[in-house]
Amino acid sequence: MRRPCRHLLAAAVLAATLAACGDSTDPDDDPLPDNAATAVGLTVRDNVEASLDAFFPARLLQPLSTGAANDPCVTPTSAGDGDGDGVPDDATYNFTAPPCRYTGVRGFSLDVVGQLRIVDPAPETAGFGADVSLVGLRFSLSAEDSDLEYDVTRNGTVTLTGTPAGLEQAVDLQVVRSFTGLSDASVEHVWTVGFDPEETLQINQPLPSGSVTVAGTVAWNRGSEAFNLTITTATPLHYDADCEASGQRFDDGELRVAGTFGETPGYVRITWDSCGEDPDIGFVADE
After folding, report:
1. Are the beta carbons of 50 and 13 closer than 8 angstroms?
2. Domain span including residue 215
3. Is residue 14 part of a domain?
């Protein structure tokens, strides 16, 4: 078992621009036109890191651990939770900014607007399941340097299932992400995200430390770019429940996003190695 670095979890959020204080990747190392490999890596990075919140639905109301899970910025249309498992029977949350405005998120200010619906698939039996729908859920990240700013908008579904031994998400999201000076990217993520805990899971309790794996497809479109990619887990991502960072709580692991990028086959490698630090993103061409 890995020794963690130390504190909590996150889900419907994301980030990036090609050289921001929140982006450690150097686009000068990107061999593809318009830094396409870097852009793919940043978009995947953000969605994977945000997926942590969907494992503990109360955290969906406080993106990237921006506040206490019991102090959300938005009121549900219905507060019913008949089985007391922390998943509402059927609640819709309409975010506006303010009050859903946060500072100090990966060096940015974050505004959250749009709609989130959370449904308990078995409202009379306590468990780990949840059906989550996102409608125009937009994260706008602003900074003193306007060239670093960007928006991410998500539509789609996340279906959570699990037992005390582990959790799994079935994800089908349509993501639109802006890039300064370039066309917006339209990206479809169809993948599964698994969580293997280091301790037995408890209903209505935050996640303990554990390992995350991702597998599926990434359909990327931006301007003339159209890439059909496959995402795999080279090394499971280690989630550190004691990491106090906002946004980045993996301290180990590697994902690969592979395919043909225009005329160049290869894969984008995303490598995490420290709590609170952005991962390295690089492109590896097939030999």
Report:
1. yes
2. 27-285
3. no
